[in-house]
Amino acid sequence: EAGVAQSPRYKIIEKRQSVAFWCNPISGHATLYWYQQILGQGPKLLIQFQNNGVVDDSQLPKDRFSAERLKGVDSTLKIQPAKLEDSAVYLCASSLTSTVYEQYFGPGTRLTVT
Amino acid sequence: KQEVTQIPAALSVPEGENLVLNCSFTDSAIYNLQWFRQDPGKGLTSLLLIQSSQREQTSGRLNASLDKSSGRSTLYIAASQPGDSATYLCAVRPQAAGNKLTFGGGTRVLVKP
């Protein structure tokens, strides 16, 4: 079974530029999560999708971050414009459903904003 | 608001020594608790998941205990090896938040040969 795929693995941009990350969850997984992990901290949930609908985006900075999962499979997370404090690893995870099923994580995208 | 704490933030032990990693959480109303391993530049790998009704879970050299009433979990790794060097994260699923995970800050472990 293929795992969660993410791209790119690394990205360096200047502040005020925009960036997009892509995630392909495990086949058949209805629930998809985006996490932000700042160096030395645990991951923080940004947004959770159930199929193509948003379940929880309470910690997503909506003035600059956006995410979509149009066909209920792949997802993209965008930052526009980026700030220095957005430097982090962005992790995507998926689970079979949203009801207390184990989450499987991708390798992450490391973003550096200069 | 659920808060998860892992102390110490970093730990260094000689090879062969047993590892004891601690995790505490403020709200005992959880579905389960999960321990993850994270290698540098990699995603998270699930190690053990303990349901709220369980006291412990074991997998090979790993044993995790859960004391929900006191808000504590401990991960034991027996006979540590250099390959166990990684960051270990614990996460809880609060009962009121569906499948949302709340993570601790992690403990970075170095096992010296």
Q: Greatest contact pair?
A: A-B, 27 and 25 residues
The percentage helix of chain A is under 10%
Total strand count of chain A, please?
11
Order of helices and strands of chain A: EEEEEEEEEEE
* Overall spatial form of chain A: globular
> Helix- and strand-based class of chain B?
mainly beta
- Largest β-sheet summary of chain B: 6 strands, mixed
User: In terms of quaternary structure, what is this?
Assistant: heterodimer
What characteristics describe this protein?
heterodimer; A: 114 residues; seven-stranded mixed β-sheet; four-stranded antiparallel β-sheet; 48% strand; B: 113 residues; mainly beta; 11 strands
Structure, described:
The complex is a heterodimer of chains A (114) and B (113). Chain A has 114 residues and is mainly beta. Chain A contains no helices and 11 strands. The model of chain A has no long low-confidence stretch (mean pLDDT 93). With 113 residues, chain B is mainly β. The model of chain B has no long low-confidence stretch (mean pLDDT 93). The interface between A and B is medium-sized, with 27 and 25 residues.
Quick description:
The complex is a heterodimer of chains A (114) and B (113). Chain A is mostly beta strands and 114 residues long.
List the helices and strands and how they pair.
The complex is a heterodimer of chains A (114) and B (113).
Chain A: E1 5-7, E2 10-13, E3 19-24, E4 31-37, E5 44-50, E6 53-56, E7 65-68, E8 75-79, E9 88-95, E10 104-105, E11 109-113
Parallel strand pairs in A: 2-11
Antiparallel strand pairs in A: 1-3, 3-8, 4-5, 4-9, 5-6, 7-8, 9-10, 9-11
Chain B: E1 4-5, E2 10-14, E3 19-25, E4 30-38, E5 44-51, E6 56-59, E7 62-67, E8 72-77, E9 86-94, E10 102-103, E11 107-112
Parallel strand pairs in B: 2-11
Antiparallel strand pairs in B: 1-3, 3-8, 4-5, 4-9, 6-7, 7-8, 9-10, 9-11
